[in-house]
Specification:
The structure is a homohexamer. By secondary structure, chain A is mainly alpha-helical. Chain A is built from 10 helices and 3 strands, in the order βαααααααααββα. Chain A is extended. In chain A, 46% of the residues lie in helices and 4% in strands. Chains B and F meet through β1, α2 and α3 of B and β1, α2 and α3 of F.
Chain lengths: 287, 287, 287, 287, 287, 287
């Protein structure tokens, strides 16, 4: 079960509110690279973890709980950036300088309103929403919890890699020193979280954890295709050479090689549609 | 641009059609671990790849093109498994043995119809659909192409790890020898594809590729939090010990350590709502 | 604006309620081939119709209004089919015959519950929902109203073609005479609606309405590719011959022909990623 | 920020695992009436609360934090109910009694597999997912946080009313004493949460909080339509009489009355489509 | 069944078309607070209403039918606001004043195009769509019809509370007198609809309708938790005091009190993963 | 199975990159009228085609394969249009002319950033995504493959009609000669694809293919309603006259006529809710 402290994990302050930056921060809340995703992902991985050893369950719970606090920081940052947002085009006009007003016909720079997430104005009352920077709600199909702990660790590295990439882009886009400070903290945590899941993969055996799942008897797979890079160039032009098709495989079990793809199967034959199946008469063979 | 051969990449045959297995195979077509996802993911990564060196673009194109053929194989397998599916409950009854019919009241085993994806009966005319095993359409928010090639490679390992886990589950669930054979091929290809993206990560520098993105100047992040595992247990009970909080960090730049989380910020103060913002009068301070 | 009559457009009665049939009927309510779709599609086409002549706007309004009544009929049919649905597995057991109970261990045929849309039991209280037969909510991206009246008429023919195909499948699956009667009416209306939109296309000029939109000056398109079927077979094997690649074109403006696809463009070059864009250092050319 | 305790808020135990009940419990996790929804809804309402008085922000935080623990309890219950779930049809057969096997052809009662959420078998490895009982992922458009605290309190009452209705249905459907016990606790908490948000509405002024938002000057609305029930029966048959159209209005500002709806506006005229807008030539007036 | 009148329920006129206002109005059509939602919600509640008394079914039908006319009014308003929308950036330039053109380089104020819903330009041909103000299609999971009439009435109050809040925000944002007039009517109707559903709750017993559903025997719930506000502050700091945790409960059955949350359960133990379930070997206990 | 050529089907070049045009092009990639849709639609129709004659399967495969190349062209065009996109507001300022900067306060024309798809900046690293012009991901419920080949051909005409309408709108909006050239090719291909599916309908019998599905015995439908246009005007005002309600029907089987809609059914009676179904006591008849 869970507890809260009213204070934030790290300070969040905004000197110059900017409604466009509020919109951009939404990507870190409700985007597929965002904090709702990692928070729920780590929770569902923890809650469903099956293992003789509760270690990863425990580890995941600590970090999942930390992530709630990150959503909270970002939601606070969005609200603070919306503090002076224009509610109407008229208000925009009033705020603009006289010379701009004169040039623009008395109602601009209306683009400040145009560039906002309209839902910030109309749906949330100038507060954060669980949506991305283009207003699309987060959906939980992005919570990856496969029941395979090694696969899940790679999903977590991915989430933190795209998450840190996003945080870096936001840091670069930010002008406000408070926002840069907050992001410098979140970027550091993403650094750690990338490290942490990679460390878990090492602990799970590194190459010995492969191929995932490593509980499947590989003699049952068609092993002549297990370490072969297949080229699909129409002219048979060979694929580029790289670590991915030369040298020993990453799990140490074979040597990589390359072949050109060719069809091993036949053209499929499904045959006629059945009577009563809603097909056209031709498909049933009645015409 | 692209070309096709009518023949399948690998043979697909079904001796005993089973509409429940058709439903389960849908997960490998339209599930988040499925083949539409990897196919489009590799294509969008290739088409958007920015780099002085076109190597990864090329590599991705070969494999993306291969994946179209995997969707095709699975779609064929679904259709073949639906070949004898009952179109109605009455038809089910006719197919059942007399003794079962007598016991069940002349209309059963109707559960064969009940267990089907109803859309297979009603929407597709006994053919595959771009949906998962519970009938939910694939949506392209699952195509991860972040513009960061290292992050994308981890996304690809994840996709192939969950993909192979799924293929193994389907292999275990399959009874038909044709289906087992087809899956033994797809599992082998998933083995290779895991290897291949991991090899690319090694080629991109392995630890030197970290933290992702490695083009951000780490002196700008709050580095005292970059290699620290944070515990959130309410009683201060220390987290489990593991590779993820002891020893050198995975990128070789620091030592892991552990601290208990405490609030560094204050309780946020958003202040009153604004006049005209649609809040209650109390929120505006008017009551 | 709109008015209602409490009575249904056509009688809806169910002699033997069947919760599986309730589930199947949902496809005709909230499926992409269903009645919510056509209803809202015709309304949005009518409300947004731009033309010097209000004829199609009017025509669409009549039929859109009729379709509300079809949703109502189907929603009533779903509720009536759920009338005796088991609320629990225990209840199922009580309803089963003694001999079945004995064989099955006292709790079956539980598959009746298993085959239900669980949301019918848990979310709607045994009533219809705006979802399809696998429980997926209708979403309004399926409302096609393009602003081009001819394109919209084809969208409407499509909706009624898939709608009638679905209704026929439901008719074939139905056993209850009341349900067969209701469906015989809805099928008839789908017949008419197919006819009606095709008649509108004829009235809009038939071939003269093509290509859609017919307000674009065709001299601006690369006309050497406007009436050519392109083969993409990897071995250059010619496509099948048919009306679609032989004889005069459907708009009478050209002759169909066939060519083999070949690349007319070059391999695209996007160049390096930019500093500050969150890419890996290699992509920026820094390593 | 947030903290966790490894122990559950209330005991969760399952004596007889049932994969169908696991599926039904999913509605309480990822359904629109479920716990992810209330948890995130209360958090976003708290984080975005604008008011001179932080009372509701605080109140919401306490309860939001409690709700994480409810998701955790339910996720645990789902996993425990999946403990003995068949992984394959063959496994099902082995578990069935000989007499049933004989009658059913050696592979049944396969309906136990057919009735499962297939994603439980194929995607989560027999663990809970953030989806509803038909497998549809929760999406965050259901997080209602409008920036108006009174409106939000009604949204919360609604969430707890539908939540308790769902919990009652699950209680009725449950056979396992552990599950009944857990649900008796969750139902009690839903009782309190309904009470709590209603108490907040009373504290916000009850009738004086109406109409929501109460910060809008009602003289600006067309008040002759503000307390009038409008009948739309085509024959002018009067609507049923009830508290909703007789007596003083709920906010004490007027008397309810009833009128028959009639059009006050005209048929809209949008005029021709514009050149270059992609319409048919007829719509532009060119034919 | 249903009928239409070509005339609108209330006049809709636009003196100065504004494509940004067209976009904002979309929230009232396809937003979760919008008119498609209430229209379909009241219809599905009516069509599925189970009761010995048809009163609420009838009441709902009248208002549902009225709401179709509201969607129609808003769709008309959107189309009229798009009447002069620029189709291209070039057109924008031509419309701008010479001095602005000179300053801006001959192609601006392009922000008018940038601020539009791009789908208005590209998909609908300058007409309304069933989407919200950021272009996201309405999805029918927002149609709440729970089978419990009291719960549904609260859902309806919520819908009208957020709906009126939205209409007020649009009124405040509107500059055009025709739009202000239309919104003054819609706000009035939202006032009435809030009143009407609250009146129904009073008629359903007010406190006696609680807790919802009131048909569940409360002795079966863990009543020691039914009227207790639970604090989750990590330091045990007591929650704020308010009507929600002091005094008699809203249903008159108990006194509110407050306790600090503590775990009553144990840490859950799921045990090892099963052979053949696609887990890692460690999880199965094989390593 | 499938093969690729690195070169594009047709040249794609951009002289003056424009991030707004990049956004608009997204509609042609991930919009419902876009190329992902037609590509997957033709593939699923081909892969599931049931017929004694493989002709349409073959035809569909050629064109589906061509469409992958169209997505590739558009994805390339999006990336090229994003080449100089500002990554931050500051960068925008630097690029603006001194006089504009002076007037605008040193940070504008920030609307260039405001008008971008924020995901282009934050999620894809300035590359194409499988989303529409307002950032909404494509979802595969738009892949129509009904199992009825005639219905599918109409779905394909619709897709190409809305697709060409979109391409024409983009052509009109484009200023860059490279983009106009690329679109002139895509428009030509859409012309052909419209023709091609219409030709297939003719080959399938034209009127003889109607009503779809033509394998249903029409004597089973209520034929007195099969060729009748139903008016729903509340005042009985007759519908407009047109080809759709006068003359012979399009399938030549009847004459069109018009009637005014009247209820043929009764008001439905669902009766009381059941004990244990989670309804209010009144609904069950207990109060």
């Amino acid at each position: 079960m869970y507890f809260h402290d009213k204070r934030l994990q790290y300070p969040v302050r905004v000197e110059t509110p900017d409604p466009l930056f509020a919109r951009q921060l939404q990507q870190a809340i409700g985007g597929v690279e965002g904090e709702i995703r990692v928070c729920l992902q780590y929770f569902f991985q923890a809650w469903g973890n099956r293992s003789p050893n509760p270690k990863y369950r425990d580890m995941l719970l600590h970090t999942a709980t930390e992530e709630i606090g990150h959503i909270e920081m970002l939601a606070t940052a969005v609200a603070l950036n919306l503090d002076q947002a224009p509610l109407t085009l008229q208000e925009t006009a009033a705020a603009a300088s006289p010379v701009v007003n004169a040039l623009m016909g008395g109602e601009r720079p209306r683009h400040v309103v145009e560039g906002m997430l309209q839902q910030h104005l109309l749906s949330s009352g100038l507060a954060a929403m669980p949506v991305n920077s283009d207003g699309i709600p987060f959906d939980c199909s992005h919570i990856y919890a496969s029941g395979n702990v090694a696969g899940d660790m790679f999903a977590n590295v991915t989430a933190e890699a795209t998450g840190r990439t996003l945080a870096v882009r936001l840091y670069n886009a930010a002008k406000d020193p408070g926002m840069k400070d907050m992001l410098s903290f979140l970027i550091a945590r993403d650094t750690m979280h990338q490290q942490q899941w990679l460390a878990a993969i090492e602990e799970l055996g590194g190459p010995a954890a492969l191929p995932i799942p490593n509980s499947f008897d590989q003699s049952l797979e068609r092993q002549e295709f297990s370490y072969v890079y297949m080229g699909t160039n129409v002219n048979g032009e060979p694929p580029p050479e790289g670590r991915f098709n030369t040298g020993p495989s990453m799990d140490g079990k074979a040597q990589f090689s390359t072949i050109q793809s060719t069809p091993l199967g036949e053209a499929p034959v499904l045959g006629p549609a059945r009577e009563g199946s809603g097909a056209q008469a031709e498909q049933i063979g009645k015409l």
